[in-house]
Every structure is written in structure tokens, then in C-alpha cells.
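Notebook entry, structure prediction.
Reason for the run: the old model in the group folder had no record of what sequence produced it. Starting over properly, with the input documented here first.
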Amino acid sequence: MRRTGYAMMLLVAGTLLAGCADRGGPDQGASAPPTPLESGTTSPAPADPAGLIGSWSVAEADEGEGAILRLASDGARLFDRCGVWLGSWRADPNGLFVVGLFGLSGPDGTEGCALESTPGWLSRASGFRSNGDGRILVDDQGDQTARLLPGATPTAGPNLAPSEVEPPVVTDEVRRSFAPAVELPATLLPATRAGLVDRWVPIGGRAPKAYVELGADGGWSGSDGCNGTSGRWVAGPAGALLATTGPSTLVGCASVPVGSWLGDAWRAGLDGDVLVLLDARGGEIGRLRRA
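New structure, fully documented this time:
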């Protein structure tokens, strides 16, 4: 994707917000680091994903010093030396956290600023915990990738409206959107991160070319049968699954929206060899099998 402007980035605005659950109300007091259960998961711990909403100064991050991360109900934005990154994010009360960046508006030719070089400290982040008024981002082993300090003030550039840099508003509706997801039904075995890493295709055969591939590096790619898309994902205990989605083309064809399925999912369970994706209320979104 070329770094042009937000008009192109917003081509599929509907998918940008598919997982942008943002919530507010910082926790008080520092909590212990999450305990790794397996690669890519952390133990349940009291967490307030709504408390992530805000503009944060990035500290103690490899090549991230001085950046500002803004998390709001309309998505994620990272302000750094490269310009302004556009993306989406998700988090849950288990302390899971994931950001996917898919657009960059900034000066062409800045060294190390290709879209493919999303900052490593952010791409490695798969969880969060409170630290006083700040937040700590951690990787899948519970090791810190960055410290977030409150009170940052991003500057609006030529491609941003003033409202896009103002302190995000946390409504009751937004808070409710971060309520704990319904547990998996007893008939499903919780999917683990290791078990999810694979290429999956929707059951039914309506769109033979549709698939989603979950990578071990936390990235995913897929197609509804004729339109490609991608994002990032993280898995946790009890079948918790969060994924971000990025832009896609809009070619019409017989399709299955597997990317949207993934972006809407809060839990993943196995019915034998079949992967079942569920929404926050426990409703079934879709079923897939290994390719």
C-alpha cells in the first residue's frame, strides 16, 4: 500500500471499525505482569480495556520514543517520525490487546518508514496491564514492549481534522462494548493460539477461493473469494480471539466474508476439526475447516 492520504485508507470504512472496541476509565494501581500460559496467550487478570482510550506518549520502546499512540472508538493512530499511521485495535478484559496499522500518511522516502515496517514494539504487543495512570504493553511472553504515559497531545496535520486529535470521548455504549464475552458453549473445545495457526476455509463451498490464514507472527491474510484483506490477531485463555481488519478491494463476486468473521469474533472453539467463530454474545458467526 502506498503512503498517500486518508481518502484511500478509508476505502472500506466499514472494515476499519470491525474490531475497534475502545473503552475508558483508567485502572488505579499497578498490576502484576500477565503469566504466560502458552505462546500467544496470557492468564485472565482484571483489566479495563476502556482505560486504553486516550492519547498516550510512548516510552521505553525500541525506536518508539517520542511517538504518540491515540486509541479511540474510530480506530488507532500512531504519530511518529514517519507521519501518521492509521489502523484499528481491539482489547478485552483478559488483558489481550492488538493493533493493526494499514495506512501511513507522511513524507515519501523517509528512511525506514515503508508501510511494511510497522514499528516492531507495536506489532509485538499482544497484551496490556495497568501501571498507575499509565499502561504497559506486553508481548506473548509477558515481557514489556512499551510503556504508555497519559496526557499526550497529537498535532493535527494537513490530512487530519481537529476532532481526530482531540481527547477521545468514552460513552456508556463504548464501555458496554467491552463487556466480557460470553463463555464458549460446553460443546466446543477452546481453540489455542498454536491450534489456530493454519490456513482455514469456510465450510459450504460457496466461494472456493475464500480463505483466512493465521500466521505464527500474529499477522493474518485472507480473501472472501475475490477481495484480499489482512490484519493482526491475538488469542488468549478460554478461546478468546481478537483480530483487526484492514482495507480491501471491492470486487463483486460470489463470496464469503471470512475477514469480517474474524474481525467480529471474540471467541473461537473447535467442534471436532471444525473451527467455530463466536461473537461477544455467544452467537455463531461462521465455521471453517483446515485447508
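Summary: The two ends are 27 Å apart (CA to CA).
The old model has been moved to the deprecated folder.
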